[in-house]
Amino acid sequence: MNEEMNQPNEKVPNQTCIPSKAINDSISKELNTNCLLDHGVKDAATVFVSCSDYEATRCCLTLGVHPERLQGGHIMNILSEDTQTTTVVDWKLIVRLLLEAGVDPNICDLTGTPLISLLVSTGDVSLVRLALAKGANIEAVRPNGDTPLAMAVHCRDVTCIDFLLNKGANPNCITGNGNSALKWSVGRANGFTLLRSQTCVELLLKYGADPNYKNQMGMTPLMSVSRREANTARMLIAAGADPNITDNQGETALMKAVETCAHQVVLTLLECGSNPNVKSSIGASAAMYAKSEEVLKMLLENGADPNIKDNEENVPIHHHAKRNQYSLCKLLLEYGSNIDPRNKAGETPLQLSVRTRSINCINLFLDLNSDVTTVNKKGISVLHDAIISWDYFSTINIFSKINSLAEMEDFNRYSQYNESTTTLKSLLLKGADPNCTGEGGVTPLMLASAICDLNAVDCLIKSGASVHTADHQGLIPLSYACKWGRTEIVRLLLNRDSPVNVIDKEGNLPIFYAAQFKFEEILSMLMVELAFYFHSYM
């Protein structure tokens, strides 16, 4: 029997539940102090679990059942799981009754959650006070690592937070996710009012919370301040938060506020001494994170350098040009940004805006006479970029792809994005050289011929692009068109007097490629042209 009585975690089927009166009668008649044998119930704790009954509990205690018999994990199962048979009122009454009767205040349920953690989650400070008075550990940790104070902070329970801190809870406790209680109090409101969150911060700081504590990512509470929490930011800085401290990525609170367009927070940080020229691990400054004209203007007016360089030697205008952020580029130029700075790749803001089709920025730079003859270190000019109308990766790799027949499907797929030649015309009108050469001697006309941009080919030829120029392999624009099966381009080039008798370094005429890949219509056109050519010399 004693062995059975020491099995507190075993539950009894519902049919063994006994009303309070039956328990009272049974205990009165046959109570062997801790057993209810008449009903086949193993111990008073099991009866308690089955009934979830305040009166039954009170009755057992009154008649001498030791409170430890009502413990053993069963009480915690009721508190955390058996909510269908126990009301919140009964729940609290039972806990109070057991604590006053001497139940261990540091009891945990089967998941390892301490009683005091459950009490904190109810928001009933009187029960928390009673548990602590009975010896509950104020720093008891849940399986996920949360202390009672961390739970109270998560719930934004200001009253409970104040009580726990007053009773000596560690204000620098770490939550289960590795954040300090202070950091957990700022940022996302989680449905709670801003005022309650700010009060949590105020209480934690009052009791000595460290405003510069970093989590595993190096984030401090100040870095988590949301756009509505300018007052919280000021409160943290007043308590000693360093506005220029950086996280593991080298980013400051200012950078994060700038990136989220938290205007008032940005202004507060700048007023409190945040340095707008601190660089992140990639060398980025706050001005490079800006997304709104208002925020960027705040930075510039507070000393942000418009020509500061990141690790790739991009300045802020590089970043905003490729994002088509016209108003930000214009503002940077007004505050002294260079118009044609080159990054490590040798690219100017104009070239980046051309590549990403940032039309407004292109027009801005052209109106201010940006250099249209720019060629980057990969041999790509602004004209090449104007013709290649897909992503940066494809642009950078164009010269390795253009002579690879295996890449034909890529060119067929991307050529559809050439919607107009507006940018190309604008660049040519500003003096861009239509015969400039890139890596391998590839000209814009060769590129346009390869990707089947009929409008670009026509525009380039009208602007002086030569149909006779050969690349380093001896290929002329017609060779490219034949190689890629561009029938309409071949027809246009022939109409513009493209030679058909140029032999490349492999010893091939353009017609060779049409024959090799069985482009029948192109083959027919070239045979006619070659027949005319040979006839004229006979």
UniProtKB/TrEMBL annotation:
The keyword Repeat applies. ANK repeats lie at residues 144-176, 249-281, 286-311, 312-344, 345-377, 440-472, 473-505. Signal peptide: none annotated. The keyword Cytoplasm does not apply. Coiled coil: none annotated. It comes from the Eukaryota. Keywords: ANK repeat, Repeat. Pfam families: Ank_2. SMART domains: ANK. This is Uncharacterized protein. It comes from Meganyctiphanes norvegica (Northern krill).
